[in-house]
Amino acid sequence: MEITRVREELHMITLEFGTAYLWRDEHGLTLVDTGIAGSAGPIERAVRELGLDPAALRRIVLTHHHEDHTGSAAELARRWSAEVVAHRLDAPVIRREQPPVPPVLSPFEQELWDGLPPIPPAEPCPVHREVRDGDVLDIGGGAVVVHVPGHTDGSIALHLPGPGVLFTGDIASHVQGRTRPGVFHTDPARALESFRRLAELPVETAVFGHGDPIAAGASAALRGAAEQLGQR
């Protein structure tokens, strides 16, 4: 487990597999994604290392239903009575009421997929609040839910216009200094449309489901990546 300060209110918690983001404001703590099953302990240790009380965790936002994002949500919600938030289209999968749709893989992605370590199954997790595009959460002065389908049907990003922060989920990535769309989408064409939508948002800081944060200048990085897609 590794903690990275992105900005005063926001820390990235890098887990054995997966990433969680901790947002702190006057209303308490919000966790965005939870890594794989078994990550609850490391996440709690990270919160305490930051000098914070895990009992202040008010909300867990899940950007989509994949098990490297939802794996520890049920355990953390149960321990700290936190509200779990997800898009209405992914909520049934998170609750294990219906199976996930498999991704459509390119040859390059198939090679990556085959090299992934086994991921433990996520415990079924309640979703206390099912959101839609445009809903606003009480985070950072108002976090707008941006529905970005394509990675999964119910993938979401969170846009905090006040502080200029964007949580992209897996629609976008930033690896080795390169901003680009993510991988392993159920609908690659819709995922690219969603990526372009994120590139239109005014943001200073962006954090990703996979890859390094962009602490400053995120809009330019996302727009540049979207423009390159248009040139192909």
UniProtKB/TrEMBL annotation:
Signal peptide coordinates? none
Gene3D superfamilies named among the record's database cross-references: Ribonuclease Z/Hydroxyacylglutathione hydrolase-like
InterPro entries on file: Metallo-B-lactamas, NDM-1-like, RibonucZ/Hydroxyglut_hydro
Which residue range or ranges hold the Metallo-beta-lactamase domain? 17-210
Tell me what this protein is called. Answer: MBL fold metallo-hydrolase
